[in-house]
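Please check the following.

. . .
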Amino acid sequence: MSLPIDASEEILSGEAVAIDAQPIGFLLRAAGAMIDMVLGFAVYLAFVFLSIWLLELGLLDDATMRIYQVTAIVVSFLELPVTVEVAMRGRSLGKLAVGGRIVRVDGGAIGFRHSFIRGLLGVLEVYMTLGSMAIIAGALSPRSQRLGDLVAGTYSQRVRVPALVSAPPSLPPGMSEWARIADVAKLPDRLARRISQFLASAAMLSPAARARLADELVAEAAPFVSPIPPVPAETLLIAVTVLRRARETRALALADDRAERLTGRRVGV
C-alpha cells in the first residue's frame, strides 16, 4: 500500500479547483506493468525463434550470434518500451488496460529523456529482478513510483476520471442588485477549492450536513466579501463563485485586449 499524498502536491486550475490528477493505485500499476513485461518477453521469444531459424539456414555464427542476442535484449526490453511510451505520449499496452498515463510530477507531458531514464532503469528493476525492485519502491513511495520514476521525476496518473460539469453555476435569483455593489476579493486557493467541491457535491449530502458545511464555508469567506447579504449560506456561496469567475474572466479579456493593442502599436512603429 502506497503512502498518502500531501494536499500541497495537488494541482490547481486557475480558478483554484483541484484537478483530478490521481496517481494509479499500486495494484493497478502492478497489473499494467505485468502486461508490459509479458509483451517484452513475447518480443524477445520472437527474436529467439528467429535466431533458431537463422542458425538452421547458416546465416548466424558464434560472433554474430552474440551480437544478435545483445540486440534482441536491447530492442525487447529497452527500445520497445521507450519507443511505445514516447509515441503514445506516456501510454503503453499495460497502461491502456488499467487507465493510466506516465506524466511529470507537475502533471506535464513526458519527453524522450523521461522515457529513456525510466526504460534504462526498468531493465534492472523490472526485467532483471522480475519486478521485485519496482514492487518494493512502489509500495514505499507516495505515488506508487518505481526507481525509474523517482529518478526521471514522473509518476503514473489516472486518466479515467469522471466528466466535468459543463454548465457553470449562474447567479441565484434576487442577487443581481447585490452583485452590482459587492466587493469580493480573491479567495485563498484552498478555500476556493473547498467551495467549488462543496457546490459540486451538495446535492449528495444530507440536509443537515449540507447546511452545516455551507455555514462553515461562509464564515471562512466572510472576510473577503462585503457586504454580506441576508440570504442562505449556499446561495451566497454560489453568488460569490459566479461573481469571482465573471470578474476574473473580464480581467483576462482586458489583459488580452491590452496585449493586442500593444502588439499593434509595436507593429505600427
Remarks:
- DSSP finds ten helices and four strands in the chain.
- The chain has two domains: 7-158, 176-268.
- Confidence is low (pLDDT under 50) at residues 1-20, 161-166.
